[in-house]
What does this fold into?
Amino acid sequence: MKKIFFIIIIIINIFSFSITIGLYKAPPVVIDENNGFLNDILEFIADNNSIELNIIIDSQQNLIEKLKSGKIDGVAPLAFTPERSQFFHFNQEAVFFEWAVIYTRKNLNLSSILDLKNKKIGVMKTDIFYEGKDGIKDLLKGFNIKAKFVEFDTYEDIFKMLDRKKIDAGVVPRFFGLDQEKKYNVKKTSIIFKPIGGYIMYKDSNLKNIFDLIDKQLKKLKEDNNSFYYRIFDKYFEPIIREKIPDWLKYMILFGLTIAILIIAIFYMHSKILKKRVENRTTALKKTLLELENKVIELNSSKKLIEEIVNLSPNPIYIKNIEQEIVFVNNAFANLLGLKKENIIGKSLLDLFNSTNKSLLEESIIEDIDILSSKRKGFIDIFMLNINNKKLYFKDYKTAITLPNKENGLLVLWVDITENINHQKNLEITNAELQLLNQKLFKIIDLIQYLGNKEIDLRSYFNYLLKFAIELSETADYGSISISDGEHWKFISAVGYDIEKLRNLPLKSKYMIKTGEKLKVMKGKDLEQYNKKVFDNKKIRQEFLKTAKPINEIMIATINISKDKTLSFSLETTKNSKKTFNDTDKMIFQAFINIAKTALSSKLNIDQVKNAYLNFASKLALIAEAHDDITGQHIYRVGELASFIAKKLNLPAERILEMREFAPLHDIGKIFIPLEILNKKSRLTDEEYEIMKKHTIYAERLLGDDPYFDTALKIAIYHHEKYNGGGYPFNLKSEKIPIEAQIVSIVDVYDALRSKRPYKEALSHESAMNIILEGDDRTSPEDFNPEILNIFRKYSNEIKEIYNSFSD
It folds into this structure.
């Protein structure tokens, strides 16, 4: 096989092949038939490989049609897509890389993709940035943003229409925008998307050997930093993507001075030889000298202007020679070091920075010498400096240049990215904290399952519960659980205290701190003041304080179990501790309070057990909704709306009550979904969406073992099924979907449309009803049970009132 390949290569080099490639205008990549970065690269490869290349210019849409009909052999530049690859072939080596940028007409400010709502957006027909996957059309659909697209044949037409204010925004490639933006009255935004490679698309598979040859040549050119590829790249792209002090200005000044000296010398020599002709030529010579002098002044002024522009840059810039001596700095660099420019020129970086940066700078100098010796351009690196006891992070851009004395020099620009780095570190810390919280919540669930399967007495149950709460808190040192029953206050469990002494104290109910079922945090001194105020027996107070120990901070909550019974759960830190209870501690503590309440209630009344268990499950539902950045009101609205629909369907009274109690648990499985997927602001990938859909079946982990939650489990598993099929997790249809899930399905959609989310605004009742009853690009009336849909239509006003009564 290899021999055949080499024979083909030899034949290609002996005989000349003719191919026709269509290019569409996108300066500076393609300017016209004869000019452009892509033109020059293709012609260079063709000339060096005996390929007769014909280039034609047309719109992208027309060129693709010509390729389909066989009128041309290839079209470039085009991005690879699975859809295009079904009908065409692509070469393997990208000629260049590009991404899309959104431009607007002047005086229109767009800061994010959300600002494109209801705007007229100019796009090029068949452009990958328009209709391709993750193109502007796909992106706006993912964010549910409606906009009007206006199609054009060329990118230039888009800029013309922006200039004339016929459209609001336009999607163009980065290089085209940089090259053409100064010619039109347009403004570049910070919105960029869809990075792609530019390839050659062809249809005839018999041409594969030619395009394999082109790939081989492209790869070889790109591996050599001094190749024709990079010289042509600099020719077309460097003027629009890089700003620096031009070397030619320095040479022009030196050249002007040299000419002036030369003319003066010539004038002197001729004055000696042709003395008699001096008077006749004096006037002309003076005029020439004056013009030359003005030219030198003009050139010096241009150099000064450019240096002033560089000094206005907020980013530190410096130039150094091969000996590592700094020969130029701007104001930002001098200000960073707190030195005057004259005290910097002639020194090296090692002279200017303290010893803490020595190792880094030594490595940087070795790297810089390599760049200077190889004359590399566009080198980028990230580093950290310790300046004035502050850690500052920079991204530096380095490029080799030629100094006025013809020596090699290095131009360096530093961009301060300290804020970005610190933000990234904070995000990592936050993510770690959230993962830790997740682990703690899973441990709580495991604890519930463990204690639920063990036959233990109430005191042992609370001992286990309290120790586990202190372990998960990481802040608490002590803790206690107690109960007031009638006029008496008794301790059930304690950690860090003598529980037997506490149990033997004759404490009254009025001594207990009552929080009214709210969590309360108090300082030690405030607790001492409270005890002095409520204890009416000095001896008992002294015994209590002696047994209880001094503390720094207490977190406490009391819950009414019945009319005469109140449960108290508290965690404390030692007196010398500097730790304070944070939001995570409070969330964990609240969960344990509910567990404690459940355990105690189970000893009193079976109905109270059910209510407490449901209350705890609701808290888990709140945690699950909190994972998804949704307010707690959402789950209560779903419960009320679901029971309302159930009543209108004439379901039994017991079933209506279950709908109110269990509908709020519909998304409880989300507690098992990773936070990075739940809180992702952009469109989920296919893999992420598949993980997200599993929250329906994950509900069985919490609800599946208890017959009491049978209705809740049906709702949680099947509420994403669609009446006409196509839902998940089992793609059920019509009556195979439990009626409870059918009710919650439409209620959940309605509430989601009405609710404000980070990625969308809340809709009005009328807009939400219109989408449910008429449909849009994501929702169809066929998704819902027709009978339930009619109830929604008939009782629209009542549904609106229920929603508003439970709004934040």
